[in-house]
Amino acid sequence: MSPSSLISSAAVVALLAVVMAAAAVPRAEAQLACTEVVGGYFAACILFLQSGGGLPAECCSGLRSLVAVVRSMVERRAACDCLKMLLEGAAEEVLRRAGLLPSTCGISDFPFVIGPNSDC
């Protein structure tokens, strides 16, 4: 696995810092936390994004579950911002795989584009 195909270690460390900080801040009941989005719904997708190969069924089911819970604009924006932060600084191949996840999983109603330049 080449270093260019991985989400950088610095990006992962930065994301973990953001997730931990977000967990400590009180939030509105309806808004999702990054720990829920990245550590829950999106967790099964991380290895696929890093190394490719077969897409785990758990990744697609996590994305479908995410679609089901992001009903409000606030929830969609929160989920989008979390995934956007996760992918900042990622290699082009990782970004390509991430952007294709909804269509690869057959999810036509995914509420936002997965990528670091998403307009959340």
UniProtKB/TrEMBL annotation:
Q: Which UniProt keywords apply?
A: Lipid-binding, Signal, Transport
Name-wise, this protein is Non-specific lipid-transfer protein
Q: Which residues form the signal peptide?
A: 1-30
Does this entry carry the keyword Ligase?
A: no
Q: Which CDD domains match?
A: nsLTP1
Q: Which GO terms describe its molecular function?
A: lipid binding
- Start and end of every Bifunctional inhibitor/plant lipid transfer protein/seed storage helical domain? 34-120
Q: Which InterPro entries match?
A: Bifun_inhib/LTP/seed_sf, Bifunc_inhib/LTP/seed_store, Plant_nsLTP
Homology family: Belongs to the plant LTP family.
Q: What does this protein do?
A: Plant non-specific lipid-transfer proteins transfer phospholipids as well as galactolipids across membranes. May play a role in wax or cutin deposition in the cell walls of expanding epidermal cells and certain secretory tissues.
> Domain of life of the organism in this record?
Eukaryota
What GO terms describe the biological role, i.e. biological process, of this protein? lipid transport
